[in-house]
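Researcher: I'm preparing a figure for a lab meeting and need a structural model of a single chain. I don't have an experimental structure, so a prediction will have to do for now. The sequence is pasted below. Please return the structure as tokens so I can convert it later.
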Amino acid sequence: MSQYPEEELEQIFKSRAETANVDFKEDFNCNTDKDCHLGVIKDILAMANTKNGGRIFIGIKDDGTVEGLSDENLASFDQTSFNNKLHSYTDPKFTVYVQRPIYKGKNLVIIEVPEFDEEPIICKRSNQNTKQQPILKDGGIYIRTEKGSSEAIPSSTEMRELLGRAMTKKGDFLLNQIGRLFSGRPSNTEENDDYKDELVEASDYIEKKIGEELKKYGYWEIVVKPTEYKKDLIPDITKVKQAVENQRVQLRGWDFPHLDKNDFANFSKGVQSWTKFEPKHYEAFRLFQSGLFVYKITLREDGAKQDETDTGKALSYIGAIYSITEFLLFSKQFYVDELNYDGDIDIGIKLYGAEDRKLKSYDFNILLYDWYICRESVVSLDERVSSVKLKSLWKETANDLCIKLFKIFNFNEVSFQTIEKFQDKFIERRI
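Model: Understood. Here is the structure written out token by token.
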């Protein structure tokens, strides 16, 4: 049984929204209900070809109501047998991760679908439902729509986008090898005050929206900016909006940065969004045409107790890895993949309310000592990276920042390889 933060699941279900990356299915038996099983296979084929992959929640009605699965139906979702069936439909061979958490006493199945690795996934076998209607077609290439449906790729526009992502993935692999050769090259570290006014404006906006909440809880602050200031790096506000919609990270069911359906809006210099979601989830950001990104979010750990051992302030060891990896992935996708920015980029990550906060794993298989406690009120993690390094070594950069963070929590023995394992689980949607 996999453990999912109840708060995270509640956010997804309350949204009542199926999207390109989220799908709800009612209770069914994977071994005996052919129609439902084929529908899930089609959704997997589509999500695999969709940016950031997706999650299929089984035991949930379309309106987000949690009905759960019977014990018999739950048992039919065995990861090995499910993937064996899936492999008969996918070319190249493609594997998903079948999790079986319990949510408020009800059985659920969550199928984590990673985005394809290097080549888009093609259906290699046709099949029909019990009414003899075609569901899957040999040679079919499927994608997800923003309305949450799985469809055969409809036009050359979507095909070019899919092939473009495949080419980018292959290029990233090559750049990763090249980037390792140059990762030690220092960047120009002169400070740039041209962002001063925009930083103040962003701070004022966030203070107005969630300032009172930030005084009560610990929170992350992320500031990312190109080192060379250009007021209109992104020439049009609508292009800022389109860029962040294209490149937000959607690996957890809750996007980063989150684009609130009611309060994601333009302002005179870019776009902004803020969200208040109970219990105790608050976040806001501004993204300017200059490329300046300022974002703050309260700690999930302060929002709800994870277990009975939560007696004080805590920072999730695994959650911090996921968050910092998410921050760097968005930076890479937005500045390099979307804007094609060619220069150095400053990335600043701060953890506020850190003093006397204990590092916790929330996983009984991982032992963290009681003395892994931070003694600073604010932890600052700053990195200046070239666009080449950000494109090719973004994950390694995130790993280094995690190590710096954990050492400030007196966890000196943490290894690069251990963090990388959790990063890969996150990227491949095996969380």
